[in-house]
Design goal:
about 190 residues, alpha+beta, Nucleoside Triphosphate Pyrophosphohydrolase, three-stranded antiparallel beta sheet
C-alpha cells in the first residue's frame, strides 16, 4: 500500500514537472511527450527522461534527545525552518552528501548517518519548479561539538521532540519525514 502511494505520488509529480518542459536539452527544438517521464525530440531524436533530483536532510539529535533545526538564510523559503541538508552532487553517495552538508551548514563532523525514509517534493528555484526526491537520514551529534551556522543556514536551535514546530518547516518532504520520525520516537509501547 505504501509503495503504491509513493509510486502514484511520484508519477503525478513527474507528470506535472514534464508539462513545464517542452524543448530538447540537446538541440533546443520542440520535444514530444511519449511517456509520463519521457520527452523525445522531433528534430534530433534525443530521448529525455525526466527524473527527480535527489536531496538529503538529516534529523540530528543531541545526547538529550533534542532535534536540531536551522533557519534558511536564502531563497527559496528564506526564513523558514529546515533540517541540515541539500542536493546530492554528482559523484557523491547519499551518505557522503549528507555528511558534507552537515559540515558545511553546522561546522561539525558527525560519525555516521542512517537512512530513515524518502519523500517526493518540489523545490522552486529561480522560477523553475524542480521535482525532488528527498532522502531523510538520522544522525547523532557527538558531545562537545560546537555548532556554528554557516553556508546557507542560520540560527541553529534544539527542540524537544514534543515541541518541534513541524508545520514551520520549509518543505513538505521534511514535514512528512519528521512526522513519521516523531511517530516512531514518541510512540510508547504498552507494558507486557
Amino acid at each position: 500500500m505504501q509503495e503504491e502511494k509513493l509510486y502514484n505520488t511520484l508519477c503525478c509529480t513527474i507528470e506535472t514537472w514534464i508539462m513545464e518542459y517542452n524543448f530538447c536539452p540537446k538541440c533546443g527544438n520542440e520535444a514530444e511527450r511519449k511517456l509520463y517521464n519521457l520527452l523525445v525530440c522531433k528534430n534530433c531524436g534525443y530521448d529525455f527522461y525526466i527524473n527527480p533530483s535527489p536531496t538529503n536532510a538529516v534529523i540530528l539529535e543531541n545526547s538529550k534527545g533534542e532535534i536540531l533545526l536551522i533557519k534558511r538564510k536564502f531563497e527559496p523559503k528564506k526564513g523558514y525552518l529546515d533540517l541540515p541538508g541539500g542536493f546530492v552532487e554528482s559523484g557523491e553517495s547519499l551518505e557522503e552528501s549528507s555528511l558534507r552538508e552537515v559540515k558545511e551548514e553546522l561546522g561539525i563532523n558527525i560519525p555516521a548517518v542512517k537512512y530513515f525514509g524518502s519523500y517526493p517534493d518540489e523545490y522552486l528555484f529561480q522560477g523553475i519548479n524542480i521535482k525532488t526526491l528527498g532522502f531523510v537520514l538520522t544522525g547523532k551529534i557527538p558531545d562537545g561539538e560546537i555548532i556554528t551556522a554557516s553556508d546557507d543556514a542560520e540560527e541553529p536551535t534544539f527542540y524537544k521532540k514534543e515541541d518541534l514546530p513541524v508545520e514551520k518547516l520549509a518543505f513538505e518532504s521534511l514535514r512528512q519525514g519528521l512526522r513519521d520520525y516523531l511517530k516512531q520516537k514518541l510512540t510508547v509501547s504498552p507494558a507486557t
